[in-house]
Write a structure and sequence with these properties.
The chain is an alpha/beta fold. Helix content is 32%, strand content 18%. The radius of gyration is 25 Å and the shape is globular. The protein binds zinc ion. Zinc ion (ZN) binds next to loops.
């Protein structure tokens, strides 16, 4: 029943498009003289795209033919040979956190006083007087370079800041920043004063030789609790401002849709931004798997708007997001054999797959029940599984559901960071999508072999093996990242990582496990049409075809022709969402 509802929604959109082109009203936008890569197999290349309203009304091989669509108010853009692709669809973001990293402190790459001061200056310029600065994760990148590179190298001294470093640039804003591991916090003088801590003998405050608090506060201490008590939460306006900053970043990166791991609060903000006409990216919401039964009981299902409960092409519920295991960054991903650098540690489960507080005892029936409840109400599951055992358990569970007659269309295993050889064929056999996050390669390769050894690393981010086995790939960025790493969202980073398998500095030469490189064409597919299909809307979006919704990205260079090392220099020139130009370089 859920499928038929989705199909009729898609059919309605298609009919609207047909109605728009029957009377051939003049176009609103004509893109001419482009290298148009359509992602349509029977018509892969074109030079012109005609847009009327929110719909593509023609994809042409001859610019002169586009003249027929020209009216007095038509905007005609000569692309000068630039590269045109269907708008990028990011299959995996944490939108809410991304905005916070843009408008609040981001200290992941900061490991000295100068860097800290610079970042505080940037943030105070954004925030109003009196607003608290939070976030941070200072030292995350420093920790890596100390930890992983060059075995036997002596660990250097970790940098720790103090309040006097930032006081002069943060007089109007109290700060509570955190270290990458959450062990230490830094309060500035304004924050200490607000909590009455400047001279109070409260436990958890670090003091210097003269007995003055340095601003450093230990995790879980009474002093930290005091500061948190007086800290004013972010206002609704501030959260909206963070959202606007994240939307701007998406427009500038050519992203037309995100599949977002959204909280109920963020969902409400999306709806508010949509009402005010500011939602410039489509959003496919992925609420937590545990909310399935509740959403179903409220009359929601996939494809419906979170407030109106009507089909909506901009903001609607998508899959339910579940979790099997932890993450590689914290040795939490679940493996059949222990981590090489942590003997005895196999990783751990998550709240959807375990019932004990330590998350060590497997309870896949718990996840089975949650998925069943969602599936019966018209939701599919998209489940995080990172270690080889996590992935195998997820495939086992999907197989069980399939054997019970469940249609697995649109079911995803998310991340698939390490897959054991015998599991590669199972994605195709089950008809399950492998959602992957290519940029993790550029990051994780630094310590992957140290943690799981060379042999298991052969199955790490093994996109070529997945494709060889006929797996449908869905690309996502995982923007903005974890406490261990920042993940970039701009498509150039994801495509670079998948095609070159090197860091941003182009190391190692030739790529990390180069046999797993994929072509630019495969990367583009996983980033456009595949993600539209993965959201059950492949018939209305995801490629450049007459009748489809006009989501278009223009890049400065033809990625199918540039040298692989040049991919990272790509810039987005124009982003069109639902027929509207939402970003244009230099305008
Ligand atoms: Zn994620």
């Amino acid at each position: 029943m859920k499928r038929s509802a989705l199909v009729s929604f898609s059919a309605a959109l298609a009919l609207l498009s047909l109605a728009a082109c029957r009377g051939t009203p003049p176009a609103d936008l004509i893109l001419l003289n482009g290298a148009v890569y359509t992602m349509e197999e029977d018509h892969p290349w074109a030079t012109a795209v005609v847009v009327t309203g929110n719909t593509i009304t023609a994809v042409l091989d001859d610019d002169a033919e586009a003249e027929a669509y020209r009216g007095p108010d038509t905007r005609v853009v000569d692309l000068g040979g630039k590269f045109v692709v269907p708008g990028f669809i990011d299959g995996h973001v944490h939108f809410n956190n991304a905005g916070a990293l843009i408008n609040d402190a981001n200290l992941m790459a900061v490991s000295d006083d100068d860097g800290l001061v610079k970042e505080m200056r940037r943030v105070t310029a954004i925030l109003g007087e009196g607003e608290w600065i939070s976030g941070g994760l200072w030292g995350a990148y420093e920790e890596w370079s100390l930890g992983a590179e060059g075995a036997g190298e002596k660990k250097g001294e970790r940098w720790t800041p103090d309040r006097w470093v930032i006081d002069s640039v943060t007089t109007a804003n109290p700060c509570l920043l955190t270290s990458f591991d959450g062990e230490l916090f830094l309060a500035n003088t304004a924050a200490l004063q607000a909590a009455g801590l400047e001279s109070a003998p409260v436990a958890g405050l670090e003091r210097n030789a003269q007995g003055a608090p340095t601003g450093l506060i230990r995790r879980g201490s009474p002093a930290l609790a005091r500061i948190r008590e007086v800290r004013t939460p972010k206002s609704h306006e501030r959260l909206l401002a963070e959202n606007r900053a994240a939307l701007k970043a998406l427009r500038e990166a050519g992203i037309v849709e995100v599949h977002d791991i959204a909280t109920p609060e963020q969902t409400a903000r999306f709806a508010e931004l949509q009402r005010s006409g500011e939602l410039t990216a489509r959003v496919w919401l992925r609420p937590d798997l545990s909310r399935g039964a509740e959403l179903v009981s409220q009359g929601f299902r996939m494809g419906l708007h979170p407030e109106t409960k009507q089909p909506d092409a901009f903001l609607r519920y998508g899959a339910l997001k579940g979790y099997i295991d932890g993450i590689m960054g914290t040795h939490g991903a679940l493996f059949f054999e222990p981590y090489d650098d942590q003997p005895g540690n196999y990783g751990h489960y998550r709240v959807h797959t375990s019932s004990d507080s330590a998350m060590m005892v497997e309870d896949m029936d718990k996840m089975y029940g949650l998925i069943r409840a969602g599936v019966e109400g018209g939701f599919v599951p998209n489940v995080h599984a990172i270690g080889d055992k996590g992935v195998a358990l997820m495939l086992d569970l999907y197989e069980r559901l399939k054997n019970e007659g469940v249609d697995l269309t649109g079911f995803r295993v998310i991340h698939n960071q390490v897959v054991r050889p015998s599991d590669f064929p199972r994605f195709r056999q089950l008809g399950v999508i492998a959602e992957v996050n290519p940029y993790h390669i550029s990051d994780d390769m630094r310590w992957m072999e140290e943690r799981i050894g060379h042999e298991r690393s052969k199955g790490a981010y093994a996109f070529a093996s997945m494709l060889e086995h006929g797996t449908m790939l869905s690309f996502g960025s995982d923007w903005p990242g974890t406490s261990a790493a920042e993940y970039h969202m701009h498509p150039k980073y994801l495509i670079h990582a998948a095609v070159n398998r090197t860091t941003l500095n182009h190391t190692p030469e030739g790529g990390w496990f180069p046999e797993q490189k994929v072509s630019v064409a495969e990367a583009l597919k996983a980033y456009t049409i595949n993600n539209a299909i993965a959201a059950f809307e492949g018939d209305v979006r995801g490629s450049l075809k007459t009748g489809k919704l006009a989501d278009i990205t223009v890049l400065d260079r033809n990625l199918l022709e540039v040298a692989p090392a040049d991919i990272l220099n790509t810039t987005v020139e124009m982003t069109v969402v639902d027929g509207k130009v939402v970003f244009e370089r230099g305008r």
